[in-house]
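New to this. Explain the following:
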Amino acid sequence: MKLLNIRIGFATNSSSTHSIVVTDSNENVRSNELDSRYGYGWEEFILADKHTKLGYVATMLYSALPRGKECEIVKRETGQDLSNFEYPPYIDHQSLIKLPVHSNGEVHLGFFRALRDWLLSGNIAILGGNDNQESNMELLSIGTETSKLSFITDIFHGFFCRKETITIDGKVINGWSLFNRENGNRYILTFDDPMETPTRVCGKCDRPMLVDLCITHYCTKECPYCYMNATKEGKHASFDYIKSVIDALAKLEVWEVALGGGEPTSHPQFWEIVQYCADRGVTPNFSTKQLDWMKTMPNGAIDNIGAFAFSAETSGQVQSFYDACMKYDIPKDKMAIQFVLGTGWRVEDVAARTWVLGIPLTLLGQKKVGRGKKYFDNTYNSDQDKDWYKTLPEIRKTIDSMWGMRPGDLGVDTSIVIQYRKAIKDMAISPIHYGDKEGEVSCAIDAVNKTIATSSYDENTHPLPKAEACIIKDIFGTL
């Protein structure tokens, strides 16, 4: 299995410690005797041959299925008959790999088959034990050579899944995307064994996972660097057209939309749009520069939101945003701050206030289109904030060491990655954590102008008079 892209990862602790181990070869790895009828718990075991691993894989699937036809499905998918077991087969809950599901909540059997075939391959071993005693297993020393081991954590719990066709360096591979609607974590991976290491980690997917959906060109702020040219005269998109876009995206199994504008909360059907997305399994997020929408927010509406970002220019605005959220009982895990470099106070001031409050910060780069072209060509001070990649990590360390607080996360958009490519490389950040090309896993749809493009600031747009899944997928393939 090869991870192609991660957006915010996580790890779990457990009492039982079952590990998936990649070896050079299982030829000299001997499986120990373990009766699968009694389950896989705290005891030490090594499963290296196909027969012993198959019992573990069958139990994994059995544990994920609702009661009813589970034994029938397990036998069909693994050849293992679990119906005659005296006790229900089990894997200790702390170590159980919880399989991802379709958008309707059913176990994704396609993903299971790919995982099954990978686990049964000749260089995968499964180790069992617990973290309350020293292990006496000697898998690290096999024969005369030490195998290189790679421990794979349980990353599938709580994830929805869809199959992907991904093109990397001209090579088409089968992949999978997994999305957690609770925290926004997203993984892209493949079980294919790449013959050559790609020069780029992620690649072009055959349909978007995220869509920037512009629902209005109206905004009262009229910021001088707005690349959308949003104004007080700007128009709202038709609600019917917006619904047709969301229907199409749901059919394509798009994971999430970022509602934008203009000021998206100014759209007269904004909360209806949010509800429509949620009802169709597409997670809605949005960015805003207003606070008054909190006063009219319907009860429970915030629960339909993945997260929202407030666009701040000063540390004072960050504080006002936080205070308003607290007043209206908005959970902190729904909040984020975004800051466009060079357009307000020093980024260090905004970052420090944001992180002390425990809120994540996303830096946005220059978009030299719309009003942004004149601003960044003539007004922007190129020296302002240019050393953010040096100063911000130090601020994070200070908050952590002196105040004993975990600061919020730091993210950047693709334009930042492109503008500061060398600096990000020098920071030794793994490329699986970011992308450097628009239009590979996401695109932008302007519901006002009825167009589609690689990003919301790409001037090379394609007409989208009719929002249908097949049309969006076809155009996305050409972006």
In short: Residues 179 and 186 are 5 Å apart (CA to CA). Residues 3-14, 136-153, 195-199 have pLDDT under 50 and may be disordered.
